[in-house]
C-alpha cells in the first residue's frame, strides 16, 4: 500500500512549541459609561462614522423583533460602513450564566444560513455551564491549580496536585468574538467604538478589561482594543473565521494545549504531559520550528512579554542546542518525503527515527502519535507488517492517552494488518 505523500508532508511538518507565557499585571483602566443607543441615529442622508443611520437602527430592531427566537438581550448596535453592510454588536448577556455573557461583532445579516445565524442557534442550544466562571472536569470545588503571583512574571497558574497527561482540566467560553475582517472593513474609530460597546454590554466588563495588555503606549490605545489584540485566539464558528477572547484562559498562564469547540463556543485546556505539584502551567504561542532569534522577538512584539522559561532563560549553549534540534526536524521532513517518493523506505525509516529522537529530546509536541503513525506507515509501505503494527500500536497509545482524534482509524489499520499476517 503506497504511503500518501501529502498526508506524510502535513504530518511531518506539523507541530507546536511549548513556550512559557506569562500575563502582565493588570493595567489601570476606566470603564466606559453605560449608554443606550436605541434612539441614537441620524435621519435621512445624514451619515457619521460613530452613529448608525436611523435606517440601520430600524433594521436592527426589526431583526430582533421578527418573531424568530433570538438569543440577544440588547438591541443590536450597528455602524454603517463604506462597503454598505453595517457591522453590529450582538450581545447575549446570559450566555453560560449570569456572570459570563457574550458579545459578537459581525456584519448585519438576515440570511438564515449566515455565520451569525448559525452562532445564534449555537447560543440558544448551548447548555448552561455548571459554575459561574470555570468548569474543571468533574471536580468543581477543588481545581488542580491555583492562581498566584510569580516573581518577575505577574500572575501565573501553579499546579496544586498532579494533573495526568491527557486530562482536560479547564473549560472556558468565548466572551468576545469579532469577525476576522472587521478591522479591515471599518475605520479605526468605528472599530474601537464597537469593541467598547461589546465590552460594556457584558454583565461583568471588568472580566475583560482586567486582562493583560501589550501596547507600549497604553494611554493611546483603548483598553478593549489592547486586551483583544493581546489575548485573543483565531477560531472558526458557523463556517466563518473570528478572533475570540476567553477570559479565564487569558488571565491564566498554562504545559498544556488549547482546543476550540465550535459547537459550544468554548475552549478546553488539556495537559499534554503529566504536570506535577508546584509546576507552572504554560501554553504554546508559536510554531515549534521557529528559531529563538525569530521566536523571542515575535513573542515580545505580539504579546508584550519576554519569555523566561528554562530554555529561553538558560545558557546560550542550551538555546543553541535547541535551535539545532528544531532546525534538524525542519530539514528532515522534506528529505523523508523525497525518500518515500523514491521508494527508499529503509532510509526514510532511519531519518524518521532521528526526527523522533530530536522531538523527544526537545519535548515540544503535545503527543508523538502522528510521528509514530508515520513510522507505522513507512514500515507498512516497506512491507514489514510486524514492525508496522508495533508502531501503529504506539501511536494508538499516544492518541488514546491524549484523548485525541484518530483512535478508531488506527484500530482499523491494526486489525487489518494483523488479519493479513494471519493469512500470510
Please report the total strand number as a whole number: 11
Strand content: 5-15%
Please describe the biggest sheet, giving its number of strands, its sense, and whether it closes into a barrel.
Answer: 6 strands, mixed
Shape: globular
Q: What radius of gyration results from the CA coordinates?
A: 25 Å
Low-confidence spans: pLDDT under 50, at least 5 residues?
Answer: 1-39, 57-62, 131-140
Tally of alpha and pi helices: 14
Structural class, from helix and strand content?
Answer: alpha+beta
Determine the mean pLDDT: 75
Q: N- to C-terminal separation?
A: 16 Å
Signal peptide: 1-18
Keywords: Signal
Domain SET: 143-286
Pfam families: SET
